[in-house]
Design a protein that fits this description.
heterodimer, A: 163 residues, alpha+beta, five-stranded antiparallel sheet, four-stranded antiparallel sheet, elongated, B: alpha/beta, 37% helix
Chain lengths: 163, 559
């Protein structure tokens, strides 16, 4: 069966050990996590996880069912099959001699990025977007020399009304 | 209202949850709890000799009664010794609560004496777990743990209880109701799915019922019987479900799988409709999945959605409690016309019963089981793991649920003696028989002591072939008879050893002594009796579906 990438939106009780239970579900079965992001929701008792994973249809079905089975999991949605918005943020520290700064800042402008730190030899740039945009931004900056690159992992939510 | 210690709140909460026994071993970080139990009324501590034994005793109690078994140990090594018992209960979906003492909260994470990360260690082998760091949380946690352990797909819940929280005082308030917003097991099957299933049942030509441990766990044995008898569809019941449908009934095809009946395995291969109920298409049942039931549509009733289409794609999934779903189905089904299929089933049954060849004047292990069945047909049988387990499953005819108890999923050797102790506490009026192996008996032999202390009339029958027999069988068949690390001829004389412990011990080496010894055991009611049956050393379990083979390729015996 063909492997597919899926994004799961998971609402969990904001409790001790929940992250370990979720990650253990994957590691214990040999499934992969491509990225996992956790944060508190508007209700401090509830956290939201965005989990990006891949596998064939049978594995994805098992992941969905096992996430639902965890006692602390309140709601699971496979966003891949829903109309949704996804975003990721990346911080790129790029080598930037004074004579190259202008070029780099032009690239940052094209990607609607922001410069968040500067020193005599580097610029640190923040770019937000979907996967394709971030990849394009990184590709454009790579020739200048990337010193450090940190990504948040994807966060995602369904479009439209209230759950 | 007066406050009381966390340990007292634990005991009072367990009493409110109708717990009558706690099987445990004392130790430093659990001392306040044992102290609270010392003069507690309406709840008894049964001290076991090893934490693994304590966990299996709680498990055996749960399997025999359907109630939640409770075990208690200290931190660190006490807790890690429980792990095998927790994992055993987890694999067979047994309702259990395992309570462990934990070091003081300010010491947690400091590599303190007898500290281990119990929540971390047990996470993959329990249904859920709690760490109690304040005496305020105790009642709520106990109520939730009992609820989670016993509902949905049952399973063990771990409560790790810091020592200072055991000592500190709080008000005792036991919640009348448990409401966990993230945990709402779905018990009623979808009516449309049930209707679809019934339609398939009515149009099938070669249908079969395949029932597992879930039928026992959901107390759905009566509903299963009604479904089979009303429709006239034959039934195979797995190792975990034995007794859910009486093996003496004409519709019974007995157990399927690796050492199951040829009839059940051939039926799977030829069937056009499999109705799976509380069974999980385990690899020991299906054999090679590519060859499993190639012509059959599958209906799968299970409380755990993640069990459905896990190993075998299913045509009609029904998520729900077996008892409720079957009750709904029974309202809709009628008798099905499947005479040619039944003739085929009856032919297989007649042609290929469970059988064995008598070798000279040897005591054959299957003969011993047959005689046990003949003398104790209504007994609760607690088997261990290995060849004797399979013979006990094959040659004893189980007619009631919870009559056969064993570690089917994890296959834990050493399970049976402590589990039999738990079963006897749970069912004091029943005859409890422990059928054990010479390898498995020695693994938890220390639990003979509490059996003697409490004068439990356990019948402990050792099928002693002086080998780790199941492994030896595989070595004979697949490893050129290279008998590595399976020779147990150096075991002690189990009859004398039993006497040294203070139990009645008998040794049987001749066929003609088998029945008299069993009759004698029947008469002992003031404590356990151990009979060491010295049986043929190299007898194998047949039929056998070798690993990787399909069920149709079952080996009926060696030529």
């Amino acid at each position: 069966m063909a492997e597919e990438r899926h994004i799961f939106s998971v609402f969990v009780e904001n409790r001790f050990g929940v992250l370990a239970r979720v990650s253990g579900l994957f590691s214990g079965r040999g499934y992969n996590i491509d990225s996992l992001n956790v944060g508190e929701t508007d209700d401090p008792q509830i956290s939201h996880m965005t989990i990006v994973t891949h596998g064939d249809a049978q594995i994805i079905e098992q992941i969905y069912k096992h996430l639902n089975k965890l006692i602390d999991v309140i709601k699971v949605t496979d966003l891949t099959t829903e109309n949704h918005v996804e975003r990721e943020l990346v911080l790129i520290k790029v080598h930037a001699e004074p004579q190259k700064r202008g070029e780099i800042l032009q690239i940052v402008e094209i990607f609607r990025g922001r410069t968040v730190d500067v020193n005599p030899t580097t610029l640190t740039i923040e770019v937000t977007g979907d996967e394709g945009k971030l990849r394009a931004a990184v590709d454009m900056l790579r020739p200048y020399g990337i010193r450090d690159l940190v990504r948040t992992g994807k966060i995602a939510t369904m479009r439209g009304g209230v759950r | 209202m007066a406050t009381t210690s966390g340990a007292n709140i634990l005991i009072e909460s367990l009493k409110r949850a109708d717990v009558e026994y706690i099987f445990g071993v004392n130790g430093g970080a659990a001392m306040p709890i044992f102290d609270a139990l010392y003069d507690a009324e309406g709840i008894s501590l049964i001290p076991m000799r090893h934490e693994q034994g304590a966990a299996h005793a709680a498990d055996g109690y749960a399997r025999a009664t359907g109630k939640v078994g409770v075990t208690l140990a200290t931190s660190g090594p006490g807790a890690t010794n429980l792990v095998t018992g927790i994992a055993t209960a987890f694999m067979d979906s047994i309702p259990m609560v395992a309570i462990t003492g934990q070091v003081y909260t300010h010491l947690i994470g400091n590599d303190a004496f007898q500290e281990s990360d119990v929540i971390g260690v047990t996470r993959p082998v329990c249904k859920h777990s709690y760490l109690i760091k304040s005496s305020d949380e105790v009642a709520e946690v106990v109520a939730s743990a009992m609820h989670i352990a016993s509902t949905g797909r049952p399973g063990p819940v771990v409560i790790d209880f810091a020592k200072d929280a055991q000592i500190h005082e709080s008000l005792f308030h036991y919640p009348e109701q448990v409401n966990i917003r993230s945990y709402k097991p779905k018990v009623d099957g979808h009516p449309r799915q049930i209707a679809k299933a019934v339609e398939l049942i009515h149009s099938a030509e070669r249908p079969m019922l395949y029932a597992g441990g879930g039928v026992v766990l959901s107390n759905a044995s009566d509903e299963l019987r009604e479904l089979a008898i009303k429709t006239g569809i034959p039934v195979t019941v797995t190792l975990m479900g034995l007794g859910a449908f009486p093996e003496t009934h004409p519709l019974s095809m007995q157990m399927p799988g690796m050492h199951g009946s040829c009839c059940a395995n051939y039926a799977f291969t030829d069937s056009d409709l499999i109705i799976a109920i509380g069974a999980r298409f385990d690899d020991r049942v299906t054999g090679n999945l590519d060859k499993f039931a190639p012509n059959a549509k599958k209906i799968h009733i299970d409380i755990d959605a993640s069990c459905i289409s896990k190993n075998v794609p299913v045509d009609v999934p029904i998520v729900g409690d077996a008892k409720r779903v079957l009750a709904e189905m029974n309202k809709l089904v009628h008798h099905v016309e499947i005479e040619p299929w039944m003739r085929q089933i009856d032919e297989w049954k007649e042609k290929y019963p469970f059988e064995y060849q008598q070798k000279g004047d040897k005591v054959m292990p299957q003969y011993v089981i047959e005689q046990i069945y003949d003398i104790f047909p209504d007994a609760t049988v607690v088997a261990d793991v290995g060849q004797h387990q399979m013979w006990a499953a094959q040659h004893f005819m189980y007619t009631e649920p919870r009559q056969f108890i064993n570690s089917g999923g994890l296959g834990t050797m050493g399970f049976s003696l402590p589990a039999a102790i738990g079963a006897q506490f749970g069912c004091p009026d029943k005859t409890v028989i422990n059928i054990n192996g010479d390898g498995s008996y020695i693994m938890t032999i220390q639990e003979l002591i509490p059996a003697i202390t409490y004068k439990l009339p356990l019948k402990i029958f050792i099928i002693n072939n002086m080998y780790l027999g199941m492994v030896r069988q595989w070595q004979e068949l697949f490893h050129n008879k290279r008998y590595a690390a399976v020779d147990y001829h150096d075991n002690p004389d189990f009859a004398l050893l039993a006497q040294a412990f203070g139990a009645t011990g008998l040794r049987v080496e001749r066929v003609e002594d088998v029945r008299p010894a069993l009759e004698k055991a029947k008469g002992v009611d003031d404590g356990p009796v151990v009979i060491d049956f010295i049986v043929d050393e190299e007898e194998n379990v047949f039929p056998m579906v070798p690993a990787g083979a399909g069920l149709g390729d079952v080996i009926r015996g060696l030529a």
